[in-house]
Write a structure and sequence with these properties.
Distance between the termini: 21 Å
Bound molecules: phosphoric acid mono(formamide)ester, norvaline
Number of helices: 13
CATH architecture of the largest domain: 3-Layer(aba) Sandwich
Shape: globular
Largest sheet: 5 strands, parallel
Radius of gyration: 19 Å
Strand content: 5-15%
Number of domains: 2
CATH superfamily of the largest domain: Aspartate/ornithine carbamoyltransferase
Structural class: alpha/beta
Number of strands: 9
């Protein structure tokens, strides 16, 4: 059975299949052609954290393909309180054809893979955000054509988004430079694993803006304080203050560079209005693509093809 848990489990060929399906369904959908490939199927979304894009992109992807989706907060589901994780996973699996989860701990997603008996899609955990990272490379392909040899400058926290983006980049032959203060970078153990799986990957870390932004085709940032880290917010604002993506920083990248952000953005903190709303920004195309990518992803985990 297929799951999307970590992008480290995927091959470039599998990612290519998801991109091709998403691309075809996007083109058809924009012309009003929405084949009901998922008629009668149910996606259940079970979330521990808030969401706009992930929840709605999977809902709309499912509905545009003729399927249905159900939503439940983890609190309503009673996970770990009213009922054991194992029992909830088995019950949800019995009602659903595919399940998306958004969690604090990665372990909860791993448990669902073990006990639900259905394909699981990681819709963000403290560690990872694979649907986002696939969408990001998909958006880069639309913007630049071939992405091999391109470079992402990731300015900010080495968080869940940076983690999955580094793998998606490695899967696609894209280099990535993470520009973050010490103590807030990707873990060395993770980088070792990445290198072992993809020996030709090129993910580096620095706190030097010039090094990170040199030859970058994408300048990417995310919030300084992720969901679950609210107690550290004021400390993080201090640490990340110099890492704001603003006009001065963008000038250090090539003129042709595009700005990307997974959203939600804290305007005036990690990015200024003139950049996220400016001509270099593709952040909102990126957001829309979450839905197109979700279609390719759902079909891939369900082992279905477009007819
Ligand atoms: N980018 C993203 O995952 O957005 P949401 O948190 O709104 O789902
Ligand atoms: N790093 C952010 C991403 C939100 C989509 C968070 O985890 O809150």
């Amino acid at each position: 059975m297929r799951h999307l848990n970590s992008l480290l489990d995927m091959s470039p060929a599998e990612v290519e299949t998801i991109f091709e399906t998403s691309h075809e369904l996007k083109a058809r959908s924009l012309k009003g052609d929405r084949p009901p490939i998922l008629k009668g199927l149910i996606l259940t979304q079970l979330f521990e954290k808030p969401s706009l894009r992930t929840r709605l992109s999977f809902d709309s992807a499912m509905m545009q393909l003729g399927g249905n989706s159900l939503f439940l907060t983890a609190l309503e589901a009673g996970i770990g309180g009213r009922e054991s994780v194992k029992d909830v996973a088995r019950v949800v699996g019995g009602y659903s054809d595919v399940i998306t989860l958004r969690t604090f701990s990665q372990r909860l997603i791993d448990n669902f893979i073990e006990f639900s008996g259905k394909p699981i899609i990681n819709g963000l955990s403290d560690e990872r955000h694979p649907c986002q990272a696939l969408t990001d490379v998909f958006t880069m392909r639309e913007t630049f054509g071939d992405v091999k040899g391109q470079k992402i400058a990731f300015i900010g926290d080495g968080n869940n988004v940076a983690n999955s983006l580094a793998i998606a980049a490695a899967l696609s032959g894209v280099a990535m430079s993470v520009c973050a203060p010490e103590g807030y970078r990707l873990e060395e153990d993770f980088l070792k694993k990445l290198k072992k799986k993809f020996p030709s990957s090129n993910v580096t870390q620095t706190d030097d803006f010039k090094t990170a932004l040199k030859d970058a085709s994408v300048v990417y940032t995310d919030v300084w304080t992720s969901m679950g880290q609210e107690a550290e917010e004021s400390q993080r604002r201090n640490v990340f203050g110099p890492f704001q993506v603003n006009a001065k920083l963008m000038k250090m990248a090539p003129k042709s560079a595009r700005f990307m952000h997974c959203l939600p953005a804290k305007r005036g903190l990690e990015v200024t209005d003139d950049i996220i709303d400016g001509p270099q920004s593709i952040a909102f195309e990126q957001a829309e693509n979450r839905m197109h990518l979700a279609k390719g992803l759902i079909l891939w985990v369900l082992e279905k093809t477009v007819k």
